[in-house]
Amino acid sequence: MKALVLAAGKSTRITPVSGGLPKPLIQIAGETILGRNLMWLASEGIRNIWINLHYLPEKIREAIGNGSRFGVSVSYVHEPELLGTAGAVRNLTAEWKDTFLVVYGDSLVRLDLRAMLRAHRAHVPVATVALFDRRKHPHTAIAGGLVETAPDGRILAFAEGTSEPGRPLVNAGVYLLEPDVTADIPPGQAYDFGRDLFPRLLAAGRPVYGHVLDGYCLGVDTPESYREALKLIQTGEVVLA
């Protein structure tokens, strides 16, 4: 399976922590977030990885290289203009020949990817979205939008930018996708998964399922969320692999 790790963002809100570096290069317990994600993917058997770049691309190339230090093979694609999370997938359409994975490179999310893949194949959707339950799973309150699901896990609605207490499930930023999903992403423009693509798929009646993770979701977008991530690690609530 191939994977795309998203690492193109400008990292504006977390500059006091990052010192201006791209968010994926922030250090957590002696290793970059991006490096930890690559090691996790390697442990799950995923070796062929693309990383998209925009902001300070040379810094990420310098830190990650060809990926061999992390047990993977890394290829890069540079975006002169940001294409958004889904636009980055559309930009690599020729690479997606089978089910593929998308991971947000500036978050630490852990789950059993093999179990997620089994669920994906059982439901045969166009997309499966990893979800965490904010009542149960360790998190930093920074992640994607809220998600409403049916009892069988089929996603009924996405609610970006809200905090409705009745919706505990949150988009964790890890997706299994089928290659034909690229046909629903406009080429050459910024397009987002949560705000644009997933609502479009639901409106068209295309099946999108959720898979509740068994680990944690530490989004690190702000100084506050970074401090919360460190606290969860230091107290032992989150154990880094």
List the defining traits of the structure above.
27% helix, 241 residues, 27% strand, 7 helices, seven-stranded mixed sheet, alpha/beta, two-stranded antiparallel ribbon, Spore Coat Polysaccharide Biosynthesis Protein SpsA, Chain A
Give a quick precis of the structure.
This protein is of the alpha/beta class.
Count of separate structural domains: 1
Q: Class, according to the CATH hierarchy?
A: Alpha Beta
**Overall radius of gyration:** 17 Å
Q: Fraction of residues in helices?
A: 25-40%
Instruction: Please give the oligomerization state of what you see.
Output: single chain
Shape: globular
Strand order of the largest sheet: 5-4-1-6-11-8-12
State mean pLDDT (0 to 100 scale).
95
Distance between the termini: 22 Å
CATH topology: Spore Coat Polysaccharide Biosynthesis Protein SpsA, Chain A
CATH homologous superfamily designation: Spore Coat Polysaccharide Biosynthesis Protein SpsA, Chain A
Largest sheet: 7 strands, mixed
- Could you tell me the strand content as a percent range? 25-35%
E-strand count: 13
In terms of per-residue confidence, which ranges show pLDDT below 50 for 5 or more consecutive residues? none
Helix and strand run: EHEEHEHEHEEHEEEEHEEH
CATH architecture: Alpha-Beta Complex
**Global structural class:** alpha/beta
Number of helices: 7
